[in-house]
Structures are given as structure tokens and as C-alpha cells.
Specification:
CATH class of the largest domain in chain A: Mainly Alpha
EC number (chains A, B): 1.1.1.2
Number of helices of chain A: 14
Strand order of the largest sheet of chain A: 1-8-5-4-2-3
Mean pLDDT of chain A: 97
GO cellular component, one term (chains A, B): cytosol
Protein name (chains A, B): Alcohol dehydrogenase (NADP(+))
Shape of chain A: globular
Structural class of chain A: alpha/beta
Radius of gyration of chain A: 20 Å
Largest interface: A-B, 39 and 39 residues
Helix content of chain A: 40-55%
Family (chains A, B): Belongs to the iron-containing alcohol dehydrogenase family.
Number of strands of chain A: 8
CATH topology of the largest domain in chain A: Dehydroquinate synthase-like, alpha domain
GO molecular function, one term (chains A, B): alcohol dehydrogenase (NADP+) activity
Oligomer: homodimer
Chain lengths: 386, 386
């Protein structure tokens, strides 16, 4: 096990009918900017619940943050924050709204002229405007971590950053929001959380025995409740476990003391930036090829995963490891996710080369848990994924 | 799953050779009282490491906090805190030293004349003197929670309390401390952590699917590494996983959204108070009888535990549940723990009745996950445990 430092100060308020607790979480003298997405919260009752809870709060709204939060839109929100002398941010939405809000929390305190520089320089902000969240879409774990991903249409880029000042002060997780989430987004949520765990687990045996078992616990729970939630979003027990699993998948706990991969995300982000494919689906596209390409480096963990998560008991290490990849792909198919890039686009020519070039240009010369995956390797993996 | 609120702000610094990081964690202008136990830290090098890290800090020492931290001793420490105008506490020790330090953090800000009243009234302090810990004995989880247990020799009482102000600001967990821990204390540590998980898990199926799996993960890890650590405390991988498992067993995570039992602890505390039996050993004494006595109420969970943790695949629910109890007792025996009270004392007469009377006098009329265990039930369980 590697040395680690771990602190997660976010207060989680979890359970049915908890959105009203907002009243107690936001300081009475705060001037709040409430941020949300395309307006689904106005159809599912969340908007009304938030407004009721904050009836006495000095509050301005900023809607329209798109999936894959767009830098230009966020810069409009930043203007509002400065002009209106906002002191507290409230994200009401899924990972995109929360990531965008986090970026604004950092941008509001940023002293440079162009906040995009924070992303390019992978800065780790130590100060930020306080913010809370009301989660409406379980998936990314952003509600209990300090990371964010921002997209910039102008340059077709999607970049990540994070920092100790970017944990939400609180996050409200009411599983009842799940009842009105479209199936496509539920499928994406299960897939996103599942892949988050894989990225932190599917490396090499690193002596994090408890971390491994926690990761397997989340995977097993998602396998158990994911299909149930998709079939019946009103199944509260399944929904609550789905929601808590998504949070635990990426709140930092399971990554402590063990190596992380994250190359699947790096390649997946490019596919979203280039083709607009849903984030979760890009992960499902890249993961099987990534594991096949890096089979030798990952086969012990793949075999452990096959044994413990999928009850594969027969065969050699190689057999079990390969079965683990097949089970993963079959699970994505069971959810209704296509796992070949050719099923999403026919304009593939030059894509893999472009991604390799971008990685090279950014200096990303060694990705993965051993920093050994070159841009050329990524090019081959993306081609395998077509 | 039940609604819950969860926040754990303690910063964990984990890994080999991390005690030196103390320098950065304690404010430069703090006046520190360093608290420790019987002096083992002066033999194993921890004392020197702490003093070196805090060479430039204004620091006073208070040693001699006994196992089962004694109220009278803590009141002596409180005098020092007040006389010396201490502003920061540093616990260097195991659960007893940390619990004692937590109590002092609350007592330093308590406005009444007799801090014991906080325990009697089960107060939940919202203010306390800041404190950090250097953990020298993995077991109780006190390094990452806000609970404490204090003993009072004068009245032969042992009472628990906790509150949001009583989380350590930081805790340093260096698994290298394990190499010098006596076998008896390692055995106690494994048993203590194992029982902590059981108390939060062995109730009834409550829809906390992920919480169940996390609990099982900790139990499985303790079963895997516990015997290894006892056999060879220099096995770093086993020791690190043991240490992290003890912390995760009682840092609040696995109890969120699910019922807790804790009746084993309530009965065990009395056995420590009355006979001076090591805390962990009282838990191993009470647990098997408790589970047999409450078999019908707990058998679904006992069977799930037997299946998932001990790979018991044959038989009915009742068969599996009973096998789960037997496996648990066998595990304690494997560790070298005696599980019958008669193996610890022959002055048993009247003990069970005395414990029942104490519970009645304190108004503890319904313990356990359904608040259904009466003092008379406790009397019978303690008799079964003899």
C-alpha cells in the first residue's frame, strides 16, 4: 500500500424528502447564485423544492449549463457572479452543473485574466467561493469530490482539474429525483460509476486489500441495482443504493494508497470532444479495448475481478482475466450500451491519430498506472475500439 | 435504506515514516499539550519522532493515561490545560489516549463544574479545543470519529458520548508502529475492529446493500490480515491493511443509513468496569451469546454473513446463520481469545443481575437495533456468556 493523505469535508445529506434541508445549510446572509442545466428541474419538482427552501434567501438564477459544461457559458455565469457580488454558489443538477459550479468557485477567486489557464496548467486551487449542491443525476461523484471537467467548444478540448478548495460544503442526495430521470441518463450513470471504479481498481496488485474489496463492493452493488433502477426508477431501495454507489465510486476513498489508471477517461474525453458521444458511452467503448491491449499488465487484477465480482471460478489466470473483460462488456450490453465506436460514428478516419497528436502536444507521453501508455498506444487502443 | 447525514472532516495522513509530518499540521502559534499513556512510546521511538517534529513548538507533556481512560487522571490533565493556557491537544497513543484527549477537548470548553455530567447527560458537544492524533495502536477507530468512552473507577462506570466538535483535526497513521505492539494488544485490536463492524452490520436486512458489502469487506480483510499481523508484525502490507481496516470499521461510513446494534458493547463495557477484562475480550465473550439469544431477529443477516464472509454455501437460512456464529467464535479462538466469561473470572455470582440493574437505573430499557433488548434480556445473555 502506498502512503496517502485523505480528507473529505463535504457534508452529505442523504435520503427521501431532504431537499428542504437546504434552508439550514446556506448562510442567512449569503447572496446565492443558483446554477442549473437545461430546465428538467422545472419539470420534476426539484426547482420548486429548492425555491421553497430558499424563499428567504437573496438568490439569483443561472440556467442553461449544458452537458459537458461549456467554458463560454460558464464565463457568462462568472460575469453575473462578479456583477451581482455573489457570495455562495448552489449547483442544482448532475455532474455537468456541479463541475461547472466548481470551476466557477475557483474562477471567482482566480487572479489571472483567463480562467482556462487554470485547466491548462492543472492548477490545484486552495481558495474558492463556497458552494453546495443538490444532486439530480447520480453518476459522476462530483457531489463529494474536488475534481471537475470542463469542455471548450472553440478548441474542441475537454480538460480536468481539481483542488482542496473545490469540495462542496454540502451535497443533498435525494434518491426520489431518480424517478424522473430518462432511461438514457440512468444507463449512463450506472456505466459512468462502474467505470470510475474500474479506473481505480484495474491496475496491478498493489497491496490495497481493503481498497480492492471496497471497489469490488461498489461494482457488485451496481451490478445488482443498476438493471433494477433502469427497469423501475421508482424502486427506492435500488435507487438509493445506486445513488450512494455513484458517490462512493469517486469520492476519493477507494483510490487512497493504490495506483490509478484513468487512461480510459483520457481517451474517452477526446471522443466526447470530437463526436459529442455521451461521456459514459465513450468509457464503455474504450474500456474493453484498453484491457485487451494492456492484458499482460493488468491480468492479475482482471482475474481477481472476474473471481470476486463475477464468480468466475474456472480456468487459468489468463482465462479468468479474459472472462472478466467479456463479463464487463456483456454488462454494458445488458444496460443497453453499445461498446464499439463504429456504432456511434462512421467518420472515424484520422481520429486515433488526432487523439495521439493531442496527447503528444499536451505532453501526455505516459498515461496509465505505470505512466507507460504512450500516445502511440492510445492510437492503437482507439483503433481497436472502432 | 434510512435517511442519513454524514460528514467526517478528519485529515488522515497514512503510511510509513509519516510522523514527521506533524510539523506541518499543528499551528505554529499553538501551545500544545501532548498526551500519552504508560510510556511505551518512549521505548518504540514514537516519542522521539514526535518531539523531533515539534522541536520548535511550545509543548508540555502529560503521560500516564491508563487503558480505559480514567476520569480522575483526565481531571488532572484538565488542570494543566487551564493553568498552562493550552490551545491545542495532541494525543499520541491508542484508543484510550485518543478518547481521553477527545473528552478533554470537550471538557476544556465545558461551562459546568463537573465534566462527568456531559457523559451522564449524553451531551453532543458542538465546541471543543482542536486536537490531532498520532495513532500507536490500531483498534478503536477513535482516530477518525467523534466518539469516546471514559471510565470512572470511583463509581465503576464506563460511559460513552460524542459530538460534531470531537473529530480529530488530523490523525497520523504510520503502520510501522505495529512492529513494536505486544501480541496481546494486536489480538485485541483485530477483535475490537471486527466486533465494531459486526455491531453495525449484524442487525436485520435494511436495504443498505452497499453498506453491507463494505462491512463484509472490512471483515474479510481482517480475517485475511489479522492472523498475519499477529504472527509477524513486521509484515508491512498486512499491518497497513489492518490499520486502515480498524479506522474504516468505526469512522462512521458503514453505519450510514442502516440500524446499529451496539448492545454487545453496552454489556462488554460493564464487564470491563466490573472485572477489568480487556475491552476487546469482553466483546468476544458477549457476541456469540448475544447472537444465539437474538437468533430469530438476526438470522437473515447472520446467514448472509456466513455466505459472503465465510463461504458457507450449504444448508437452510438457520443452518447458515448458526454456522456464522460458530465461524465467528472459531475466529476469536484462532486469534487466541477466550470467549467464555468463566475463563476470565470465577466471581460471577450476581454479575448479570448487577448489569441488568445498572441498565435499568440508567433508563436503558431497550437496547439493540430495534430498541427491544430489555435489561432482563441482557441479564440472560450475560449468564449465557459465562
Amino acid at each position: 500500500m502506498n502512503n496517502f493523505e485523505y480528507k473529505n469535508p463535504t457534508k452529505i445529506i442523504f435520503g427521501k424528502d431532504t431537499i428542504g434541508k437546504l434552508t439550514n445549510e446556506i448562510p442567512a446572509d449569503a447572496k446565492v447564485l443558483m446554477l442549473y442545466g437545461g430546465g428538467s428541474i422545472k419539470k420534476n419538482g426539484v426547482y420548486e423544492q429548492v425555491k421553497t427552501a430558499l424563499a428567504k434567501t437573496d438568490l439569483i438564477e443561472f440556467g442553461g449549463i449544458p452537458a459537458n459544461p461549456e467554458y463560454a457559458v460558464l464565463m457568462d455565469a462568472l460575469k453575473v457572479i462578479k456583477e451581482e457580488k455573489i457570495t455562495y454558489l448552489l449547483a442544482v443538477g448532475g455532474g455537468s452543473v456541479i463541475d461547472g459550479t466548481k470551476f466557477l468557485a475557483a474562477a471567482a477567486e482566480y487572479e489571472g485574466a483567463e480562467p482556462w489557464e487554470m485547466l491548462k496548467n492543472k492548477e490545484r486551487p486552495t481558495k474558492g467561493m463556497p458552494f453546495g449542491t443538490v444532486l439530480t443525476l447520480p453518476a459522476t461523484g462530483s457531489e463529494m469530490n474536488s475534481g471537475l471537467v470542463i469542455t471548450r467548444e472553440e478548441t474542441k478540448e475537454k480538460l480536468a482539474m481539481g483542488g482542496p478548495a473545490l469540495f462542496p460544503t454540502f451535497s443533498i442526495l435525494d434518491p426520489l429525483v431518480i424517478t424522473s430521470i430518462p432511461e438514457r441518463q440512468l444507463v449512463n450513470g450506472v456505466t459512468d460509476a462502474f467505470t470510475h471504479v474500474l479506473e481505480q481498481y484495474m491496475t496491478y496488485p498493489a497491496g490495497g486489500l481493503l481498497q480492492d474489496r471496497f471497489a469490488e463492493s461498489i461494482l457488485q452493488t451496481l451490478i445488482e441495482v443498476g438493471p433494477k433502477v433502469i427497469k423501475d426508477p421508482t424502486d427506492y431501495e435500488a435507487g438509493a443504493n445506486f445513488m450512494w454507489s455513484c458517490t462512493m465510486a469517486l469520492n476519493g476513498l477507494i483510490q487512497q494508497g493504490v495506483p490509478g489508471d484513468w487512461a480510459i477517461h483520457m481517451m474517452g474525453h477526446e471522443l466526447t470532444a470530437l463526436f459529442g458521444i455521451d461521456h459514459a458511452r465513450t468509457l464503455a467503448v474504450v474500456a474493453p479495448s484498453h484491457y485487451k491491449y494492456n492484458f499482460e499488465a493488468k491480468k492479475e487484477k482482471l482475474a481477481q475481478y472476474a473471481e470476486r465480482v463475477w464468480n468466475v471460478t474456472e480456468g487459468s489466470i489468463d482465462d479468468k482475466a479474459y472472462a472478466g473483460i467479456e463479463k464487463t462488456e456483456a454488462f454494458f450490453h445488458q444496460l443497453g450500451i453499445k461498446t464499439k465506436l463504429s456504432e456511434y460514428t462512421d467518420k472515424f478516419e484520422g481520429t486515433a491519430e488526432e487523439i495521439a497528436k493531442r496527447f503528444t502536444d499536451r505532453g501526455w507521453l505516459g498515461l496509465g498506472e505505470r505512466q507507460a501508455l504512450t500516445p502511440q498506444d492510445a492510437e492503437k487502443i482507439v483503433k481497436m475500439a472502432y
